[in-house]
Amino acid sequence: MTTLTTQVAIIGGGPSGLLLSQLLNKAGIETVILERSTRDHVLARIRAGILEWGTVELLREAGVGARMEAEGIPHDGCYLTDEELMVHIDFKELTGKQVMVYGQTEVTTDLYNAQDTIGTTVLHEVSDVDIRDLDQAKSYVEFTHEGTRKRLECLYVAGCDGFHGVSRKTIPEEKRREFERVYPFGWLGILSETPPVNDELIYSNSRHGFALASMRNENLVRYYVQVPLTDKVEDWSDQRFWDEFSRRIPSEAASRLVTGPSIEKSIAPLRSFVSEPLRWGNLFLVGDSAHIVPPTGAKGLNLAASDVYYLYTALIDAVKGKTTGIDEYSARALARIWKAMRFSWQMTTMLHRFDGEDAFAEQMRKATLNHLATSETARRDLAENYIGLPF
Ligand code: RFL
Ligand code: PHB
Questions:
Q1: CA of 136 to the centre of ligand 1 (A)
Q2: In what helix (H) or strand (E) does residue 133 lie, and over which residues does it extend?
Q3: Which residues pair with 143 in a beta bridge?
Q4: 87 in a domain, yes or no?
């Protein structure tokens, strides 16, 4: 069997795995990434679009800030609306900070290019990953690549392989505690080469259901509508999407809407999920492998980045023999994760209609938006969470 050796084996070459690898290599720590899919497949997945400022700074620290600086669009605020109120959350005025509109696809592209420049090892199309000896001084990962079984020996394993990966499941079931809330709807998202309907994002709670107007650049929009979980992408022609979207956003915005063909269309179910702990011996879970948030708070990718921050600083110490950071990783990361869970759940509850809900639930949503409209304290609290809690 071919045997490879590294300091940190990273399972998954999505944003978590790539960013961790980039930061570790910059600090002189060797990594090998094992990714199930092809690079093109990873880069074709359209996901998050909003970076917290802490994520922006971490990407700069990783040496991948240049294109983001040139092409990303800093946003000072966003709108939350129902059919009566339109509340502006002015992040800049309330917190002094902004967020950056820059797609996950672009972040991932920049990270792959940076990994090429450094010359790190990223193996694609690996299968049957088996993580072993996590309670020993040295661990190893066995996997199939190019038709042969290979072995990667390492000091630490980072589980960056998303919700459906193998890392979390390597922790014995009786040692894991899982928390979950599945929401009874999904988001249908489209990407279209049209100018944004508004210069800031609009989160809209209408009587027809939720809609979000987001963007990637001045001629590329990402728009979403809440749909029942039973809906399929094939049920949604472009025309049906545009009709539904335009009746869910404020009429004044709808009057400016430019429609066009969709270049991508997908449905994502909404879920809150946390698996504790994040550490098992030499294995550390990072990003979606340990937690999922509904996208309403724009937190998924940003939480992955804060996990990476805690872990990469801890691993730098650990290879020098100082283990406090890795000992504290799970508790430190989870403290921030749970706050983002709370915010994402609150935004989801405030902005969506739930099938079969009672009139009381609707009044609670209205009162929450009304409170935001009239209380600067409430707006500041939302802004602080949206732009990202410190890490
Ligand atoms: P990823 O991006 O899922 O990457 C994990 C990588 O691991 C690989 N993998 C394996 N590799 C080797 N062996 C195995 N057994 C493996 N199993 C899986 C996968 O191929 C993949 O390349 O996790 P990561 O890196 O932690 O990054 C997290 C973010 O991707 C995620 O939090 C966000 O994209 C969440 N998310 C969204 N977040 C937002 O903030 N805004 C959004 O609009 C938004 N939309 C989304 C999303 C997540 C989605 N998923 C997971 C279904 C839309 C979707 C559809
Ligand atoms: C996106 O642009 O894809 C996006 C933006 C904000 C969200 C979720 C998704 O809350």
A1: 29
A2: none
A3: 150
A4: no
Of the candidates 62, 8, 68, the residue with the CA atom closest to the CA atom of residue 32: 8
382 and 233 belong to one structural domain: yes
Does residue 312 have an active-site annotation?
no
Give the Cα separation of 157 and 132 in Å (integer).
10
- Total domain count, the chain: 2
Of ligand 1's listed atoms, the one at least distance from the Cα of 287 is: 26
Compute CA distances 202 → 81, 213, 295, 296, whole Å: 7, 5, 14, 11
Which CATH number does the domain housing residue 12 bear? 3.50.50.60
Distance 182 CA to ligand 2 centre (A): 19
User: What's the CA dihedral at 297, 164, 22, 104 to 10 degrees?
Assistant: -40
> Over its length of 391 residues, how does the chain's per-residue pLDDT go in tens digits?
899 999 999 999 999 999 999 999 999 999 999 999 999 999 999 899 999 999 999 999 999 999 999 999 999 999 999 988 999 999 999 999 999 999 999 999 999 999 999 999 999 999 999 999 999 999 999 999 999 999 999 999 999 999 999 999 999 999 999 999 999 999 999 999 999 999 999 999 999 999 999 999 999 999 999 999 999 999 999 999 999 999 999 999 999 999 999 999 999 999 999 999 999 999 999 999 999 999 999 999 999 999 999 999 999 999 999 999 999 999 999 999 999 999 999 999 999 999 889 999 999 999 999 999 999 999 999 999 999 999 9
81 lies in some domain: no
Q: Is 82 inside any structural domain?
A: no
Q: Is 41 marked active-site?
A: no
Domain-embedded: residue 93: no
For the beta carbon of residue 37, count every other beta carbon within 10 angstroms: 16
* From 79, 102, 112, 203, the catalytic residue: 203
pTM of this prediction exceeds 0.90: yes
Q: Which residues span the domain enclosing 141?
A: 2-74+98-180+271-347
- The reply to whether 208 belongs to the active site is no
> 51 and 14, same structural domain?
yes
Q: Is the peptide bond before 277 cis (omega within 30 degrees of 0)?
A: yes
CATH number at residue 194: 3.30.9.10
Same domain for 318 and 176? yes
Distance from the alpha carbon of residue 70 to the mean position of ligand 2, in angstroms: 20
